[in-house]
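step=encode ok
step=design start
structure_in=
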């Protein structure tokens, strides 16, 4: 860190912190100056900033000082909402009087997150593509309420964003919004001048700072679909989730009913038999899917391969049969959306039929009223990120969890940076014209984990099996929860395990309130959990990340087993196999890295302030006995560690005041 006691970013950060009533944090200052340096010299930066560092200010201040536009991309709507509704407005108010600082900002989301005035005013296409003005059935009242809200937003120059809308379901929102394939385009839409999406883009064009999400960033930078005005630097917050979000954005699906729907919609626009041919191809795909087994395809069955080629060719012919638009043609939403459906079928079938080694193809299980679907995803995304994002922009990656196994290499490699390119000392840049120098920085945490937290590994328990929780594990859970007198967040590897644990605690500790994921919506469960310390909340993956419950509400975090990916996970298993084939250690590079990331996030639920105290209890003895246990433990905060259950029960009892 520079020895000078002052710098523009340090001065502005001090002004902001003072105006906000905060105190200077060394880690925040170090981060802000490192981000500013990265933006100036064009070197990529990975900065791990522990909970409580104040990393939002650590990157927002240098972003506003930078002389070119900066994009901030988050993984979750919760963080995006926090930035836009709280952090940035407060920062702008705090530094608004400082000369030379551009405090303009805008929010950009995917098109389907905004209400569509054309769909609201002209109606929604039915199965035949005819625009129907009035919705029918039980959701009619809610859709009309959403339409009224959107019209008021248009009149008031509001954003038309889904987050600001009256409460609704996904199905109801689809009646007032469109995806990018259904959009007529601003120049052709009669309501283009009022369009919420276009207004958001215009605001972004005028702004120094643009707040968006990982998925939109991936579509813009990697898929090559222009969504974001030109920018110089991107700050990727929650960067530990980036690979998963980019993978999701590049994943396509196809089912026989998608083909049927596209065929029905195109019937009224195509004069020849091409729509019927597409329907026949859909039937062939349905037969091929029913004959195939769910899971990843090592070798695609011939029947399925032939059906995909048939769908691809039929969709291409159907697209060609749509009447050409002329300058005098009246724009018809039904035609645009029908053609969009066929285009999507064609693109997905073409990708799946190609059988590229760069993709993984699998068949989902399906379920109640959900037909099996073919899914295709990229085997890896680091190459695309390196070629299409890192080679063109300066990127700052930040999160509380970037060092896995005590090192940045795993995360750096996953996003497209090479460990050999890391700049350790000033000026030590890798040779080669295509090298992408990067720096890794851990600014620490204001928390004293050694004093505030205990890591307990239940070494005496049997290793977890495939049959769920056994009696010894349930007994251990009940004993720990009893000692903590509630105050427990249980993070489980499956819904079945969470429900079994909840049932055992309810039966044996009836004086406590025990909630299980699925009992109510997650925000309501979290609210109940915070309201009463004598409460336990048990759940699965959505509780591992993002749940913020400071104070004595949560003094025990239970993790039932190391969260390795399921052996039958199509994408993870393919990536692990590819790493082995390339001469690496697929288990450590894929499975152990995945588990380390989740465990670090899960353990991070415990200590949220400098006064929090508690225990992270891992009921999987492999953390203490397996060779990979050291890698996993090095990924966790530096807590005091024990394997003695008596010591832990006494500590929990003291914390609970019993």
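sequence_out=
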């Amino acid at each position: 860190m520079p020895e000078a006691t002052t710098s523009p970013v340090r001065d502005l950060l001090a002004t902001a912190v003072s105006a906000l009533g905060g105190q200077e944090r060394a880690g925040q200052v170090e981060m802000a100056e490192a981000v500013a340096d990265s933006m100036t010299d064009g070197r990529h930066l990975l900065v791990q900033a522990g909970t409580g560092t104040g990393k939002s200010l650590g990157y927002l201040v240098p972003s506003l000082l930078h002389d070119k536009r900066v994009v901030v991309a988050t993984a979750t709507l919760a963080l995006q909402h926090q930035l836009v509704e709280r952090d940035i407005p407060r920062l702008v108010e705090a530094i608004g009087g400082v000369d030379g600082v551009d405090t303009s900002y805008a929010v950009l989301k995917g098109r389907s997150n905004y209400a569509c005035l054309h769909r609201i005013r002209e109606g929604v296409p039915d199965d035949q593509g005819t625009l129907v003005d009035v919705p029918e059935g039980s959701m009619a009242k809610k859709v009309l309420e959403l339409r009224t809200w959107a019209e008021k937003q248009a009149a008031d120059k509001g954003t038309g964003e889904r987050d600001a809308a009256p409460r609704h379901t996904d199905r109801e929102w689809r009646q007032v919004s469109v995806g990018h394939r259904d959009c007529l385009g601003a120049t052709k839409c009669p309501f283009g001048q009022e369009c919420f999406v276009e207004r958001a883009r215009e605001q972004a064009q005028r702004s120094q700072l643009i707040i968006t999400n990982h998925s939109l960033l991936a579509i813009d930078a990697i898929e090559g679909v222009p969504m974001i005005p030109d920018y110089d630097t991107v700050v990727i917050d929650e960067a530990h989730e980036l690979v998963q979000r980019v993978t999701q954005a590049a994943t396509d699906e196809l089912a026989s009913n998608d083909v049927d729907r596209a065929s029905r919609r195109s019937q009224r626009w195509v004069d020849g038999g091409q729509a019927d041919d597409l329907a026949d191809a859909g039937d062939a795909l349905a037969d091929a899917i029913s004959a195939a087994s769910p899971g990843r395809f090592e070798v695609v069955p011939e029947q399925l391969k032939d059906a995909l080629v048939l769908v691809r060719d039929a969709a291409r012919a159907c697209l060609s049969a749509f009447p050409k638009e002329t300058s005098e043609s009246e724009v018809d939403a039904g035609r645009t959306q029908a053609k969009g459906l066929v285009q999507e079928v064609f693109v997905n079938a073409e990708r799946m039929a190609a059988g590229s080694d760069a993709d993984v193809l699998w068949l989902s299980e399906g379920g109640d009223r959900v037909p099996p679907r073919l899914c295709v995803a990229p085997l890896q995304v680091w190459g695309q990120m390196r070629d299409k994002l890192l080679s063109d922009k300066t990127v700052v990656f930040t999160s509380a969890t970037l060092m896995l196994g005590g090192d940045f290499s795993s995360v750096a490699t996953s996003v497209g940076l090479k460990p050999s390119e890391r700049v350790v000392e000033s000026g030590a840049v890798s040779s080669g014209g295509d090298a992408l120098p990067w720096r890794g920085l851990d600014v620490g945490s204001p928390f004293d984990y050694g004093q505030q937290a205990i890591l307990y590994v239940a070494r005496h328990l049997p290793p977890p099996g495939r049959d769920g929780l056994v009696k010894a594990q349930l007994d251990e859970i009940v004993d720990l929860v009893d000692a903590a007198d509630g105050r427990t967040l249980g993070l489980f590897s499956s819904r079945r395990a969470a429900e079994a644990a909840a049932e055992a605690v309810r039966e044996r500790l009836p004086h406590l309130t025990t909630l299980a994921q699925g009992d109510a919506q997650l925000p309501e469960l979290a609210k109940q959990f915070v309201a009463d310390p004598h409460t336990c909340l048990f759940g699965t993956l959505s509780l591992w990340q993002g749940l913020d419950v400071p104070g004595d509400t949560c003094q025990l975090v239970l993790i039932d087993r190391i969260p390795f990916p399921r052996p039958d996970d199509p994408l993870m298993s393919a990536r692990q196999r590819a790493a082995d084939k390339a001469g690496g250690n697929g288990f450590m590079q894929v499975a152990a890295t995945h588990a380390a990331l989740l465990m670090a996030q899960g353990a991070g639920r415990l200590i949220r302030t400098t006064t929090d105290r508690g225990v992270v209890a891992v009921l999987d003895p492999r953390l203490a006995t397996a060779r990979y246990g050291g890698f996993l433990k090095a990924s966790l905060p530096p807590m005091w560690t024990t394997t003695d259950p008596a010591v832990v029960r006494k500590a929990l009892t003291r914390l609970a005041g019993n």
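step=design ok
step=annotate ok -> The two ends are 47 Å apart (CA to CA).
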